[in-house]
Amino acid sequence: MADRKRVAFVACRHTLTGSPDRWPDAYEHDRERDAFMPAFQAAGLDLVELDWEQSDPARDDIDLYFIRTTWNYKEKPEAFAAFVQQAAGHAPVMNDPATILWNMNKRYLGELEAQELPVIPSAFIDRDGVTVDDVRARLGADEIVLKPLVGGGGFDMRRIRADEPGDDTIPVSQFAQPFLPGILDEGEISFVFVEDRFSHALRKLPAEGNYLIHTHHGGRNEIYEPTASDLETCGAFLDVLPAPALATRIDVVPHQGKLLLMELEAIEAHLFPEYNPQLGGLLAEACARIIAAA
To answer: Where exactly are the transmembrane stretches of this chain (predicted)?
Structure first.
């Protein structure tokens, strides 16, 4: 029998099975692990849970690091960046460290906007003293949303309505985007890809009276059937990744007849496996191929 290969399902102490420090939304970790493990087993791959902060790549005996629920990296991005680079010296890391490091800071959105891709405009704060009104003028929008440069999951965001004062200053650790009211009715659409292969899509809708679409903020999800034009738009974003990715989620918002990018999730985005029972098989096939080529 051929030797089985070990794939690290890289997580953190807040998501690992049995951890006393689990966060309430760590059920997403369980959903992915349970959905992927049978397909990986069938492909000759052992899927092994691994806390990135406890990892020692020189001793892990891992054939591929699959970055999954490393959610606390946002609290210590420098340490996480060091981990993925160190791990890459011993086995393939997916997604590629070049893509992970690029994707960790939301300034990548400005790069995509400069390439004239369909992206929600962003205003980045490069000095102290920039006010909400300064950013409103720069974006040409009365209502804006402040977001952290390193963050996710809808946490630490602030919607500033048109009738709110604009003299508050914005820290350089945040950036701003215009609030798109379409998200209230049409939600956010997420497209999941394995390498350059489309897997599935879903629409995420906010709860009544909220604008945050995540289920832990009260939102709900439904299946979405993409058009050929939708997938063409997604392909343009996949093409600009610094390195080909194993798993990518592209989050967009419908606006004036177009899809505008909200986030290009290429680190540890939840992949919603319940919307495609074949997702585990697609990932296992790709991982086996990457390991064989390493």
So the answer is: none
Alpha carbons 194 and 200: distance in angstroms, whole number? 10
Please say whether the beta carbons of 228 and 193 come within 8 A.
no
CA-CA distance, 85 to 256, in Å (whole number)?
41
CB 139 within 8 A of CB 176: yes
Reference 146, options 213, 110, 135, 182; nearest CA is: 135
Residues 291 and 222: their CA atoms lie apart, in Å, by: 34
Domain containing 190 equals: 108-118+182-265
Instruction: State if pTM tops 0.90.
Output: yes
> Across-strand partners of 259?
254
The model's pLDDT over 119-134, given as tens digits with 9 standing for 90+, comes to: 999 999 999 999 999 9
Q: Tens digits of per-residue pLDDT, 48-86?
A: 999 999 999 999 999 999 999 999 999 999 999 999 999
Residues 205 and 91 in one domain: no
Residue 247's domain is classified under what CATH number?
Answer: 3.30.470.20
Q: Is the pLDDT of residue 218 over 90?
A: no
